[in-house]
Amino acid sequence: MNQDMTKGSPLKLILLFTLPLVIGNILQQMYQMADTYIVSQTLGVNAFAAVGSTHSINVLVLGLAIGLTSGLSVITAQRFGKKDEKAIRENLAASVIIAGAVSVVLTVLAVSFRRNILEFMNTPHELIGFASDYLTMMFIGLSGIVLFNLVSNLLRAIGNTKAPLVFLAIASVLNVVLDLAFILVFDMGVAGAGLATVIAQFISGLIGLVYIKRSVPLFRIHKEDWSAGFKQIKEHSAIAFPMGFQTSLIAIGMIVVSMTLNTLGPEAVAATTAAQKIDSLATKPLMAIGVTMATYTAQNYGADKLDRVWEGVQKVLKVTTIYSVVVGAILIFFGQYFALLFVGPENTEILEMTRLYFITNSAFYVLLSSLIVHRYTLQGLGKSTAPTLAGLFELFGRVGAVLLLSKSLGFVGVGLSNPIAWVGALFPLLGSYYALKRQLTGGKTIRPFRKLANVIK
């Protein structure tokens, strides 16, 4: 069912829209945790650490593709807000063309250079074989992952969050079942875990296409829409590629972090892998609200209801601040016990490292929540410059912190790289947001960001 977010209470709409996304994100994280749990319990700590060591590479490649589909869905949401059905169909045609072409190019490049990237990252010798096998399967099936995310993001753009949740639930169950089959029955090792993920998402993506054909007449492309879609590729790329590029910038910083972790040994890699699984689960609601803000903002921007955008941002920031403080405190005090899901109690060094990770990250969730809300709001407004600049600031902050602090503080220095990166990213985001708000409403920019806002404007 489509949802018009241009009418009604902003906070109520945002929270109701976010709820299925939160459930979906948690469900996705749970099956990813089940994925790594199966690997750790059946294949050992090295296999578990190897899968974790591929995280930054996956974000670099898959994040580019998935971020691109998010950018394409922003345009769909804007045109849905305008109630322009013809433009929506043309947007869908352009989205399919761009996503298909990117999938082919990324698949070829990623499969060809996966081993080279792992070697460049100084992946420990005992992990590199596992990591290469896992990435091979993930990248071969990249088109299935893109299909799943494109279908889901386009449906969310028109306010439909329930169908993508069902597709994700199907993918989750399939992924766990296939994990067990490929690893335990067919003895495929970590390659089986990667193959299970891409097959599950591909099947769910196909189910999504069938759903669209039968239940979403708004997305039924006519012959003439394809011609218009080709003509609009440049316009769509101007928004979609920067959003994908922003994710890749973050991933480059994560790769530098992974390279540093690799020099600290398999224990540091395993600790970070376990901590990041829990950290990711904790921040999923924040990411869900971010996705909601992009759709909410885009629809209201298309409907020329900017007052609702500013009101929504103000109210959501209060909610995310409270959430960040509460969840951050829980992880600081109890996070290392959650890590026992992945590592045994005998691995005291790894558990101590996870405790340090939570202290250096979870205490700063408030910064992350503000970053997410403002970044996605600007993206919903079709503004790509400031979010891209924020990605660069985040990259430089993370890389600089890792290279400098890891030498003096070791693992703690690596952990501090995230909040330092968040601080760096907030400056261009807040400056751009308040500059844009002042420009569109005639209001005043808050004093700390006045000069920066004028520059970005």
Written overview of the protein:
With 457 residues, this protein is mainly alpha-helical. It has two domains: 9-228, no CATH class; 242-447, no CATH class. 86% of the residues lie in helices and 0% in strands. The chain contains 17 helices and no strands. It has helices spanning 10-43, 45-53, 55-81, 85-120, 125-140, 142-157, 162-185, 190-215, 223-231, 233-264, 266-302, 306-338, 348-362, 365-380, 385-409, 411-441, 450-456. Helix 2 (45-53) crosses helix 5, helix 6 packs parallel to helix 8 and helix 13 packs parallel to helix 16. It is globular and about 60 Å long. The chain starts with 9 loop residues before the first helix and ends with a helix.
**Structural class of the secondary structure composition?**
mainly alpha
Label the overall shape. Answer: globular
Major sheet: size, sense and barrel closure? none
Strand content: under 5%
Number of domains: 2
Secondary-structure element string: HHHHHHHHHHHHHHHHH
- The pLDDT mean sits at 86
Total helical elements? 17
Distance between the ends: 38 Å
Count of individual beta strands: 0
Give the low-pLDDT segments.
444-457
Measured as a percent range, the helix fraction is over 70%
Rg measurement, Å:
21 Å
Summarize, please:
Helices cover 86% and strands 0% of the residues. It has helices spanning 10-43, 45-53, 55-81, 85-120, 125-140, 142-157, 162-185, 190-215, 223-231, 233-264, 266-302, 306-338, 348-362, 365-380, 385-409, 411-441, 450-456.
